[in-house]
Amino acid sequence: MPNEIKLNKSALWFGYFGLIPFLLPSITIWLIGTGVPFDPLYLFFCTYSLLIGCFLTGALWSFSIYENQSPLGPIVLFLLLFMFSLLLMALFYPVTLSVINIYAIEENVSLLLLISLMLFYWVLFAFELRTYNYNQQYRNMRFRLTLVVFVAHLSWVIFFIVKLF
Q: How many whole angstroms separate alpha carbon 46 and alpha carbon 2?
């Protein structure tokens, strides 16, 4: 049986510091409100979320190699995240930059992207727990990180819903 994957203090701190770009936009959006253009903040948040999602699926590839498993699971997760998000971002950018304001479509695409990212992080976490031999400290850290990332995305979802009504 492969060795148990351990967590060192640097990985722990880098994991928690990686939450800052999730939390700052999620809090800032409530401070600036709907009267100020928030598209750049939203795009930064979603882009960072996509990059971290891609990074995590890439890290799973190395876990697979370490544990002598097929990297097919991480590859499929990465492709699903990348392709679906790319599609949604492709829809979002033209609507945002268009001369004609198609506000309802923009809001729906934004919500769909946020919800899909929220679900992706939980699917990724469940996949990791089921597939890899992590120690309890790492499992606890991944759960806390996933929960905070979920709440950050939920903050944006609530913001868009409040904005609609």
A: 36
Contacts of 69 (CB under 8 A, 6+ apart): 63, 131
Contact 22, 45 (CB under 8 A): yes
* CA 19-21-22 angle, 5° bins: 60
Per-residue pLDDT reduced to its tens digit, 23-66: 999 999 999 876 777 888 888 898 899 889 888 888 887 778 77
Element housing 30 (H / E): helix 20-32
Q: What is the DSSP string of 54-103?
A: HHHHHHHHHHHHHTT--THHHHHHHHHHHHHHHHHHHHHHHHHH-SS--H
Selection from 75, 78, 56 nearest residue 141 by Cα = 56
CA distance 161 to 164: 5
DSSP, residue by residue, 108-160: HHHHHHHHHHHHHHHHHHHHHHHHS-B-HHHHHHHHHHHHHHHHHHHHHHHHH
CA distance 36 to 25: 14
Q: Tokens 């049986």 identify what position?
A: 1
